[in-house]
Write a structure and sequence with these properties.
The chain is an alpha/beta fold. It is built from twelve helices and twelve strands. Bound molecules: (2R)-2,3-dihydroxypropanoic acid. (2R)-2,3-dihydroxypropanoic acid (DGY) binds next to loops. Keywords: NAD, Oxidoreductase.
Length: 320
């Protein structure tokens, strides 16, 4: 069975696949354009797929009829048409859990960075534009006892909430597709409507799976309802927030600040006006970028492919 891997991943995953006797194909150049990528996919059985530049949609599946399975090197699968994959009986593996700690760490870091204006102040140091002590300059806000609103209380949202509770004794409110009573008890969290989440959060952190209905969910009408001291954090997908509306909310004082690990598109252009704002911290989609998480993702992706090659069900599967 041939496995096409479009970018290098940690050795642990490669070794597992080789030990299982699978034939691995790497591209000559990792930055493939769509047509080159399609050619590789047309001559393989399984894809170990890194990144979401190209969509797995009807067009793709029609162009690559030999594809039998796809193992994503991500927990998110918003770039896959799952319905289309289901119709063709193509399992789509993903990598849940192993990156929850790392990704929630980044949400936690962004929250603090924005609350204390860390990136703005770091820039001051780089520009030699600071004095030792300025009583009224660059004042941040403390997070103790504030209200954290989680949009999407899955594994990553849970870990973010737990950290905020332990570190800052924050009150947790959340909005989800479903109530999760066990999680509610563990976090002493309160389920609220989307409107209440938006109005009552001091920090609103997005952790849901991205679906087309979520596109631009956080837009002008939402930012206008938020508290002017609120911090908006997005480590999920850039499509959740409407960028121009976010920019306006930040410059018009509708919200205090924003921390983003995801943008739309990615990469964000260096001349994006958001990057000029003192109340914004943007990171380049590094939620899962730790040695531990990336090793875990490589292991899970390899486990998925090996199971599939033996005719078994993928243990971590996004198909519903
Ligand atoms: C994920 O695993 O979904 C990360 O965001 C990387 O795409």
């Amino acid at each position: 069975m041939k496995v096409f891997i479009n970018k290098r991943i940690p050795e642990i995953g490669i070794n597992m696949l080789q030990e299982a006797g699978l034939q691995i194909i790497f591209p000559e150049n990792e930055n493939l354009i769509y047509e080159e990528w399609l050619k590789y996919c047309q001559h393989t059985d399984v894809i170990l797929s890194i990144g979401s530049d190209f969509k797995y949609d009807k067009l793709f599946f029609e162009a690559c009829p030999n594809i039998k399975a796809i193992a994503l090197y991500s927990v998110g699968f918003d770039h896959v048409d799952i319905k289309e994959a289901n119709q063709r009986h193509i399992p789509i593996g993903n990598t849940p859990d192993v990156l929850s700690r790392a990704t929630s760490d980044i949400a936690f870091l962004l929250m603090q960075s924005v609350a204390r204006r860390a990136s703005y102040n770091f820039q001051k140091v780089k520009d030699e534009a600071w004095d030792t002590f300025e009583p009224l300059h660059a004042l941040g806000q403390e997070l103790y006892g504030k209200t954290l609103g989680i949009f999407g209380l899955g594994r990553i949202g849970f870990q973010m909430a737990e950290k905020c509770k332990r570190a800052f004794e924050m009150e947790i409110i959340y909005h989800n597709r479903h109530h999760n009573e066990e999680t509610e008890r563990e976090l002493e969290a309160t389920y609220v409507s989307f409107d209440e989440l938006v109005r009552n959060s001091d920090v609103l952190s997005v952790h849901a799976n991205f679906t087309p209905e979520h596109k631009d969910l956080f837009n002008q009408s939402v930012f206008e309802k938020m508290n002017p001291n609120a911090i908006f954090i997005n480590t999920a997908r850039g499509g959740f927030h409407q960028e121009k509306d976010l920019y306006n909310a930040l410059t018009e004082g509708k919200i205090w600040g924003a921390g983003l690990d995801v943008t739309n598109p990615e990469p964000m252009s260096a001349d994006n006006p958001l990057l000029k704002l003192p109340n914004v911290c943007v990171l380049p989609h590094i939620g899962s970028a730790t040695i531990e998480a990336r090793n875990g993702m490589a292991r899970l992706a390899a486990e998925n492919i090996i199971a599939f090659s033996k005719g078994e069900k993928m243990p971590y599967c996004a198909n519903t």
